[in-house]
Amino acid sequence: MWREAGKLAVSGDYEGWFAIESELRSRGFPRAKLLFDNDRVREKLDDICKRAREQRADANRT
Fold this sequence. Notes:
This protein is mainly alpha-helical. It is 76% helix and 0% strand. The protein has four helices and no strands. The protein is elongated, with a radius of gyration of 12 Å.
């Protein structure tokens, strides 16, 4: 589940951990809520999402 969350984060398609949690739950990971019950995990995924979205925006500008 953590690996899947990481893939979603680096895709640049998600704003942050909450959107990823929702996506995982919709994909059949009902325990995703437990994974995100940790501030460090949330911060890490938010950071990955932010960097991925910034890279996508930079690529679209050129």
